[in-house]
Description:
409 residues; alpha/beta; Rossmann fold; 2 domains; 16 helices; 14 strands
Amino acid sequence: xxxxxxxxxxxxxxxxxxxxxxxxxxxxxxxxxxxxxxxxxxxxxxxxxxxxxxxxxxxxxxxxxxxxxxxxxxxxxxxxxxxxxxxxxxxxxxxxxxxxxxxxxxxxxxxxxxxxxxxxxxxxxxxxxxxxxxxxxxxxxxxxxxxxxxxxxxxxxxxxxxxxxxxxxxxxxxxxxxxxxxxxxxxxxxxxxxxxxxxxxxxxxxxxxxxxxxxxxxxxxxxxxxxxxxxxxxxxxxxxxxxxxxxxxxxxxxxxxxxxxxxxxxxxxxxxxxxxxxxxxxxxxxxxxxxxxxxxxxxxxxxxxxxxxxxxxxxxxxxxxxxxxxxxxxxxxxxxxxxxxxxxxxxxxxxxxxxxxxxxxxxxxxxxxxxxxxxxxxxxxxxxxxxxxxxxxxxxxxxxxxxxxxxxx
Length: 409
């Protein structure tokens, strides 16, 4: 595979049989959990080509999730910025308010096939937790969600939604009390309950087969977006932009355009308060190769080589590593990874809300901010943004911390 060019059969050959995307990925866990992962892999490979499984998932997406989600032309925002035309793939209109339900319904359906009684997961912004709680209620499964105490305070609306849906929200009080610690706690719980439960990882990360499975379930975003954009405009977008923490929404939309060499892909990481250690979570931009949470990746490390403390205003992005497939796509030059800080994300949050009547999640606001900066620099072209989720969950926190800016007349 030459630099910046993807083979036609890329999605069928990546990862390899051992779960590697190039040198990234794999399955670095103890033997007991490795057997559980092998069981999940075997079950997934058995049913992912099954017409019955595929038909059921398609029915769920259409009748329950409300797919396909539309693409919106952001005409007023585009006109305010210049000549470049901005569009948004509206995953905020997916049932439960974000892209996360795409893989949660698939993982829960897999759990039912395997005869499991419970699903276990971590969550940061709460969107994955809400989505999995929704899927668990739909399929009649028990649901335990591990969430850092800091994120519980920031994301109170989503915590309430999870509880209303019947999930047990378990606070994580150690370390920085955010997403990384929630992953640790969920892994530990799964190690004790793997015979009756399945761990539903919330992004394209973790040990094999989860980076592959979550990408496959999120691929629907890219498939829809490519067809919809061509139907709307008669051509493909010049640029596709998505936020990247673990990177599930980004891999979902990127996967639809990987073979289109004319379409430039951009992954936007959280620069937070700035580039100093502990002030951001831009792992691909500032990190180095290492193993964490059962897979080899590019990660931010402390002085001992362990996952470093990280920060982002967006709870769903404050993770010290990224999905292994993103690391490969960075290495071969197919995707450009860059950063957006907190302040620019907040400004984009309000600008999109007031120009288009769309309140984005803080995670999505990073992609919106990057697209705005691109539009201001370019003379012409089109930018498709993956609007990964809606901002209801963030409004109270933003108002308390930043207030509401005056309306410019």
